[in-house]
Model the fold of this input.
Amino acid sequence: MKNKKEEQIAAKKKHIEQLKKKRKTEPDVERAMPILKEKPTILIVCEGQNTEPSYFNQFRLSSATVKPVGEGYNTITLVNRAIQLANEKSYEQVWCVFDKDDFSDNDFNNAIAIAQANNFGIAYSNQAFEYWLILHFNDHQGGGMHRDDYNDKINELIKPFKVLYDGKKSKLIDEDFFELLDDFDEKTDEKRVDLAIRRAERNYNQHNHSNPSKEESTTTVFKLVQELLRYV
Done:
């Protein structure tokens, strides 16, 4: 009887030891810390210090971080600044945002070439960034429109919505204006940003891009916006 009891105790002890050994080899599921993946950061180096950064800052992305930087530089100087920033820190993507304005054709075209050589995205506008905003409300066909007329044209288009864009002083795109850009068009029942993308792409494709400085009115901001929308 005693031997049988001792055998039972020994068997129980052996079983407990086996369980302990098994626990040591199994992964601790309860204590495992989640691995947090860092969101990719998209650097957007802007010529303007107000309009463009205030616009891109409005994007709320779920799987990426937008870092718009308003440098106050233009064309080639801006692209060189982007190269400097890209060398200081690693970014998933780097984009240069600049306008033709009244800069020389040579500077504008060379800025595009240098940005392409560095694998940067390019969101240029000929003549200015506000042309991209106009395309959300007006199906402009890409012919000449002087940038001096942009502010009045924008406010004419958004007046029915009781929204104002101060393109001469503050040059900021506030939340109300951005929501209007992202809202649905009452005539087509499409999102205005989708309309702007389609119109900008159509106007851009009318040219062969051998001399972007002469391709008025065009904007490639639609390429950057398309990319950002992938991360919404």
